[in-house]
Specification:
single chain, 6-stranded mixed beta sheet, 4-stranded antiparallel beta sheet, 253 residues, 10 strands, alpha/beta
Length: 253
Amino acid sequence: MALLEVNNLTKYYKEKLALNAASFNVRKGEFVSVIGRSGAGKSTLLRCINRMIDANDGSVQFADTDLYSLGKRAMRKTRRHVGMIFQHYNLVYRLTVLENVLHGRLGYKSDLDGILGRYTQQEKELAVEMIDKLDLTEQIYNRCDTLSGGQKQRVGIARALVQDPQLILCDEPIASLDPRSAKVIMDHLKKIASKMNIGILCNLHQVDVALKYSDRIIGMKQGEVVFDDVPEKLGKKTIHEIYGTTDGDLIDE
């Protein structure tokens, strides 16, 4: 049974069609990559799934709940179980690693508790556990503005994990990283999917990375899903159709 079902999701920005009846699903513990050119609709897709922006048409079923039927309060509760990882980390840089990770619990807090930073001992222990999983224990009390890009992204992942997510949406999580740091991030995300049984939906520019880590790949072109299958079925001809290219630079030989 699918954890996430996206059906005919359509989004316009004024007159421009950004998503064109996109449909696919993600199962628990499955790592699904979304590839395509800049402007293909990948980021819009993720933001419509968790309703950071609202689609014009279509539906999103998450854990048997129709997200587009929910009011603001119910949607806020549902977002507790949908983590989000951003290309540019989205951290509070003047705060420590621990403080940033604890922000993943804000969806469980009243506004006052969130403002005052009131966290239970259990929540603090969970944050420490996730920081350790991401190999950040030595940086736990460091301000985030002192960290490398790869370390910042690992803080973002730990923050998502303390939400107790069933699904994590990743918007170009390695686009700003060097190859070594990118590999560390992708290794962690793959382990999270397989060991913690969390669905991962990950936007990627790098086709070779998608081929290496994905259980399934979704190819998008001009807002449409034009490919949805296992990596072994993604041939060079299809890659060039997705990206509108005729060269061989998109994939390592």
